């Protein structure tokens, strides 16, 4: 599949992490999503109902980020993948969760986890 919808830099505050301070104070998470699906019908017919509404998708992803805390960003990414694959038209989804304020005692630019799953792997 070569057709893709990409959503980059979706930011929301979550309370994920293994440290008590992460759970108490929270921090911003950034999420990138790539959906692979056939966009030909949507493009041909200029019809939103024949594609994934990325505004609606963003709202659903934010609910996961701001929702129930998890220890690992791997788990958060997996939950976000489930949201992406809820739409039957999506054949494969890639989710990257960035944790730019991870509690690392050294200077760093970013920490991220990337998961890619196809419908058959769900």
Automatic annotation (TrEMBL):
CDD domains: DHNA_DHNTPE. Pathway: Cofactor biosynthesis; tetrahydrofolate biosynthesis; 2-amino-4-hydroxy-6-hydroxymethyl-7,8-dihydropteridine diphosphate from 7,8-dihydroneopterin triphosphate: step 3/4. One of its GO terms (molecular function) is dihydroneopterin aldolase activity. It catalyses: 7,8-dihydroneopterin = 6-hydroxymethyl-7,8-dihydropterin + glycolaldehyde. GO terms for biological process: folic acid biosynthetic process; tetrahydrofolate biosynthetic process. GO terms for cellular component: cytoplasm. The keyword Aminoacyl-tRNA synthetase does not apply. It holds the Pfam family FolB. Its EC number is 4.1.2.25. Keywords: Folate biosynthesis, Lyase. Residues 5-117 form the Dihydroneopterin aldolase/epimerase domain. PANTHER family: DIHYDRONEOPTERIN ALDOLASE 1-RELATED. Catalyzes the conversion of 7,8-dihydroneopterin to 6-hydroxymethyl-7,8-dihydropterin. Belongs to the DHNA family. This is 7,8-dihydroneopterin aldolase. It comes from Asanoa ishikariensis.
